[in-house]
Hints:
This protein has helices at 2-21, 43-48, 50-61, 83-87, 96-107, 116-126, 129-148, 163-179, 187-209, 214-231, 245-255, 260-275, 278-290, 293-304, 318-331, 367-371, 423-440, and strands at residues 32-33, 64-69, 72-77, 93-94, 159-162, 336-340, 344-347, 353-356, 361-364, 400-401, 404-405, 441-445, 472-477. It is an alpha+beta fold. It has a six-stranded mixed beta sheet. A three-stranded antiparallel beta sheet has the order 5-13-12. Strands 7-8 form a two-stranded antiparallel sheet. Strand 2 and strand 3 form a beta hairpin. The longest helix has 23 residues, at 187-209.
Amino acid sequence: MAWALVLVLIGVLSAVFLFCTRRKRQRNEPPLDKGSVPWLGHALEFGKDAAKFLLQMKEKHGDIFTVCVAGRYVTVLLDSNCYDAVLADTQSLSLTHYSQILMDRIFNLQLFNHDPVSERIRVDQYFKGSSLSRLCSSMQNNLQLLMASVNPQNPTEWKKDRLFDFCYSLLFKAGYHTLFSTENNNSAEFTEVYEEFRRFDKILPKLARRSAHRDELKIASSARKRLWELLCPDWFFTGTVAQSWMQTYLQHLKEQGIDRQTQRRAMLLQLWVTQCNAGPAAFWLLGFLLTHAEALKAVKEELCSLQHLPLDKREDTPIFNSALKETLRLRAAALITRDVMQDKMIKLSSGQEYVLRHGDRLCIFPFLSPQMDPQIHYEPEKFKFDRFLNSDGTEKNKFCKEGLLMNYGTMPWGARSSLCPGRHFAVCALKRFVLMILTQFDLELCDCNARMPPVDLNRYGFGVLQPDGDLEIRFKLKKKIHNVKL
């Protein structure tokens, strides 16, 4: 029996070795880098620090290359001027297959009848026009209510907090109330949803990569089950409430023939998609401002000059917009992934043509190109609040590389079929949150010499990065607006 097991093991290892060594680069295919470990390839380096690894591969191979990652061959494209043309081909490049894999791994969700096209149309309609205006107004009101309750007993006395938790909790609760409005607007329920969400979100990248250990899997499973219960109480299926985003999405799933249990699970996916980035983005924006005095002064002066205007007149903020774009350039790091359904020829900006092989996976990483490309942005690792401003104070949207005009200077919202439909609502929420903080509160670092914490390397590929650490802050209501309704 022992010999039989040994022979089976030898056979499996031999099969793996042959599988991983037989791959050869064909004519016109991108440079191939299989790594030194059969089958595993570059999986460890990719998972440990995706940005560092892909930058090393870019320096070694150029703007396109294929690497082996745990038995899968992944072609990485880093020429941002051909992103649009590549992503426009939805026949050769499919989003559906890989997204279904991630939904199952992360959310224990299978949407076999899922129609992403009809869902995208519905979502686009919800986040534009009059619907967008109503959402922004509701978000403003919810933020005001939450901020008024932050320090109700002694509003003009300093209160200490951690900036990441402060931003994430407020924007999450306001966003949850706005998009997932409930009949029972219970603050304790909001807090529990937030706490369970944070427990789940901390482990989410490891769920996607299948690297979570046993204790982490238990925590994720527990948080996931509790969120299923909290997000979809029975009365949401009765049609007794107004058409919130939750109700609209549930109706869409019902029309797709998806059962109630799966609908409950799908709501956690929507919660994560809509709420995972706002809090971290606000943290980085306020953190950069608090640690860059010149930037903070410029943004404050611009926002304060708009306070007397109606909300719909407060949109002319080129300095704030530049600071926000710069923040997202530095910290938005999602991977755009497609499965190659048939051999496809792509042409780089250089004119060189390459063939993507059927069965491989394509990844586009805007964080490296264009966002952190030193040939596009001088000193790309530094926060420069006016990077997206022309000398006359107008918006700068033209960037060049080696004399070639770039299609994008930054791509925090994706592109083409991956373009975030809720980007306008997200910008509105961030702007109004920061406007409230900087104009209605005194906010400062507890340690005036504090530096921004490094990023959590585990979060590359999953939207806006999160910090590995925090900033201690203190804040209080400005005296001039004490006893005035926010």
